[in-house]
Specification:
- By secondary structure, the protein is an alpha/beta fold.
- It is built from eleven helices and 24 strands.
- Helix 1 packs parallel to helix 11.
- The C terminus is likely disordered.
- The structure holds flavin-adenine dinucleotide.
- The site of flavin-adenine dinucleotide has 36 residues, from helix 1, strand 2, helix 2, strand 3 and helix 7.
């Protein structure tokens, strides 16, 4: 069972199904996701800026490996019973309610309980509006598809000359500010951040980002804390000294809390991990990410693996790896290999290790920065910039989908489930619904 149909979940599900087939381990794989569509999260700032997304249907992505798609939201993991309660959505919910009669068309009818032998926990992360008080009511984000579409509609409706304030100075905030400024040149875009814009970049990388933002007309307000969002913009205050205003010059230096008027506020200062692990009683760290050991397993539940934003895989220093597609995909591959090894009765793979290589930032469609970093994500003074940077970043985005297609299409030599030997662990214990055996690859 895989919870989450993002980069980590889809990659893990396809790889488990494909590898199990090659190993002739009969396994039924199901993936639970609230939407029937795959969301390319790393392009949501593009969606907000008005670019049409590619339509990627999860059923088609997963179908090649006969992974069952359950459209719904996992509400609780009953780790003791090895089952997941899923609140069905869309057509699945309608069919379930219909099957049980109109009178039973209530929450219970829309709930499905699924047993698992192995669980990959990958429900990702979402916007974190609580980062700035008032954010939930008055700010928009690019963290999920619905928010990005809402932002797109508000940007299209904004009056010429209106101001958009993007809060945050990390990679997502930079990408969002640049994309919006390029797509909506009639709007004034400001980036408001504690510390400096692109804190994790090298001097050269930061200088390039500053230049690109200036060229796009983005004003940057650094070392500035946004303390509240309301219908009229932000309250901002200098952080540990004077705020520095640069760029198009539309921003005055910030003094002790003062108003920064904005028609739209976009919060892009961090993501919040899915809360499901914590609300299901599993151990969490780092603000709610599933705690996992060096083999990406939940400490008290070795049959649960975590991957992606929702889990806290550790780097070489013992700190949680930063959230990112770049970290999610290798974790998913590792978790999948571990699941297949466990189901086949093999020894687990050696502990998970991860080394960073680059940070990739788009700055609109014509500029990009590919920042070299050392294995621990510390920047080194080597970078690709400009159109070449934009091109490489585009290739990286395409690679994420290509990586999923690779798992989908990689040839396998497995026989049919009927020919395959029985797995070493029973697949039919428990009182929940079994996954259909026909789904085995
Ligand atoms: C605008 C933007 C730009 C980005 N750019 C980059 C970049 O350039 N490089 C990079 O490395 N990273 C980037 N990221 C971060 C990257 O998108 C995430 O780190 C990545 O999506 C994590 O993958 P994931 O599979 O863990 O989670 P997600 O992609 O978030 O997928 C999780 C899935 O689980 C589903 N889900 C949630 N709760 C439940 C539940 N209870 N039951 C069932 N399903 C559930 C969600 O709906 C979603 O479909 C960017 C993010 C954004 C928003």
């Amino acid at each position: 069972m895989v919870i989450g149909g993002g980069y980590a979940g889809v990659a893990a599900a396809l790889r488990i199904a494909g590898k199990a087939a090659r190993r002739r381990v009969p396994v039924s794989v199901a993936l639970v996701n609230p939407s029937p569509l795959f969301v390319e999260r790393i392009r949501l700032h593009e969606l907000a800026a008005g670019r049409a997304p590619r339509r990627l249907e999860l059923a088609r992505l997963l179908g090649a490996r006969r992974v069952e798609l359950v459209v719904g939201r996992a509400r609780r993991i009953d780790a003791a019973a090895r089952a997941v309660e899923v609140e069905l959505a869309g057509e699945e919910a309608a069919l379930a309610a219909d099957a049980q009669g109109a009178a039973a068309a209530d929450a219970a009818a829309r709930t499905r309980r699924l047993d698992y032998d192995a669980l990959v926990y990958a429900p990702g992360s979402a916007a974190a509006p609580e980062i700035v008080p008032g954010g939930g009511e008055h700010a928009l984000s690019v963290a999920d598809a619905a928010s990005a579409l809402a932002l797109r509609d508000r940007l299209r409706a904004a009056r010429p000359g209106g101001t958009v304030a993007v809060v945050g100075g990390g990679l997502t905030a930079i990408e969002a500010a640049a994309e919006i400024a390029e797509a909506f040149p009639a709007l004034r875009v400001a980036l408001v951040t504690r510390g400096r814009v692109g804190e994790g970049l090298s001097e050269r990388g930061r200088a390039y980002v500053a230049r690109a933002l200036r060229e796009l007309g983005v004003t940057t307000l650094e070392r500035t804390r946004a303390s509240r969002v309301d219908a009229h913009g932000l309250l901002v205050a200098p952080e540990g000294g004077e705020a520095a205003a640069r760029g198009a010059g539309a921003v005055e230096r910030a003094a002790s809390p003062e108003r920064f008027a904005a028609d739209l506020v976009v919060l892009a200062a961090g993501f919040r991990p899915a809360a499901l692990a914590g609300s299901s009683g599993l151990a969490t760290v780092a603000g709610g990410r599933l705690a996992v050991d060096r083999r990406l397993r939940a400490p008290a539940h070795p049959e649960i693996w975590g991957a992606g934003d929702a889990a806290a895989a550790l780097d070489g220093d013992g700190a949680p790896l930063r959230m990112g597609c770049a970290t999610a995909l290798p974790q998913a591959a590792y978790a999948a290999d571990s699941v297949v090894a466990a189901l086949a009765g093999d020894a687990p793979p050696p502990p998970f290790r991860f080394a960073f290589a680059v940070q990739c930032i788009s700055l609109g469609r014509r500029r990009g920065l590919i920042q070299r970093v050392d294995p621990r994500d510390r920047p080194i003074e080597r970078a690709l910039t400009g159109r070449v940077g934009a091109w490489v970043k585009e290739l990286v985005c395409r690679y994420t989908i290509a990586a999923l297609r690779f798992e989908q299409l990689r040839p396998h030599r497995g026989g049919s489930p009927a020919q395959a030997p029985r797995p070493r662990r029973a697949l039919d214990a428990g009182d929940g619904e079994r996954l259909p055996s026909g789904a085995a690859t």
